[in-house]
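Lecture 7 notes: from sequence to structure.
We start with the chain below.
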Amino acid sequence: MIKGIIFDLDGVITDTAHYHFIAWQNLAKEIGIEFDEVFNETLKGVSRMESLERILKLKNLNDKYTIEEKEALAHKKNEAYKKLINNITSKDLLPGIKTLLDDLKANNIKIALASASKNALSILNHLNITSYFDYIVDASKIANSKPAPDTFLDALNGLNLKADEVIGVEDANAGIESIKACNIKSIGINVKGDISLNSTKELTFDLLKTI
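Predicted structure tokens for the same chain:
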């Protein structure tokens, strides 16, 4: 039986992707760039600054802005996003997640959050599930974001467990790559992992016991 599980946040515990989309889309329109939700899928699991670079690349505008100007743009997007997520509550937990967290705690399985979001703690607080987590990665202190292994390595160290003692759960290809780079078994939600699921409803403690 595993000793720990490491969750991504967006698309695994709750779904804030649409809020990211709205905030990025509004910012992009201000600088003359338009994109749709299909492109937004490519930003899943990617850091804020890398997301901005990908958006600017759509119009070859990466060199138009200084680093300081890019940071200001990313900050403006984040402030808009934070306003959008202020109304998130425990009702916004994805199906089955609350039951899974309860089962993990009841069976002394350590739980970590490995999100690229610098708003992760705030979102957990809104969802009223912060107390379930033994360790929360501070994305602002991670040198290389997903698909680099840094985020999940930090979570692994935070739990004080070995790679073969945990499972990582992700919904983005970048996250799955990050997990695999750590030699951790992966569960993909609507994305290909060592185990692939169509919904968080299928992510149960009974399933984890078979791994």
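Points to note: Residues 17 and 41 are 8 Å apart (CA to CA). The first helix runs from residue 17 to 30.
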